[in-house]
Amino acid sequence: MPDWKNAADYGFTRKLTLEEWAWQFLRRNPDYQRDWRWFAATWSALEAEYGQPPARDYFRWQQDPRAYREGLSDAGEATGPLLIECWMGHKWGFYKFPLDPAMEHPQVGTQLLWREVAVTPCLIGESDNEWLGDDPAKVAWGFDLRQPLGWQFEQAQRFLRVLQKQRSQNHSLRPETPAQQQEKWRRYLRYLDAEAVQATCEEIVEILQLDELNGLPQQAHEMIQTGYRRILILSMATTRTKTL
Fold first, then answer.
1. pTM for the model
2. In the chain, which residues have pLDDT < 50?
3. CA gap 16, 79 in Å, rounded
4. Closest residue by Cα to residue 193 from 233, 234, 235, 223
């Protein structure tokens, strides 16, 4: 890992793609690191018994219970056994063979291939304000299912674009664009690396030139748990915009 005390050590992040940013956060996740150690040990044990390609005994490998782990849905329900390499990818959001968190710069598309992140619409009930809350980034739009949906979607899209622009201009909404986020992401990485070497709060505040930590620990931890997936959503949106 870079030296968290040296800002220059994080200069490499200025050239990162969004997919690479997501990996920088995931590889710092202690839960992912723990899963990787379990996976690597299990894989090595299976290879010791059944061999490596092309001489691997695939039939016996696939009969071994150690080669599988129970998959879970997003709701936490069991979905059936998965091969451990698929289990890792399903849990953490990537295709390809699971990557060692020590790998600093995997090649996107060959070594690291992220799964598409699903953004599930939320059906808002008549008196349901829990999802909306007071967040200016969230808005509900009514649809009449008795009428054709196509023109309603078009109207909604025009309305939402105008509303997004208005709320951005009055500063009640801060769109999560990469350019606006990267300085904050660098601070999160430095905090996580400081935490990994058990730096004191006083050291972190001094070196990162902060008045106090405030919510920095919580925000940094959120990025390694689920926030890295939001980076991938930004990547998906950027890719789709370029193809329109």
1. 0.80
2. 240-244
3. 35
4. 223
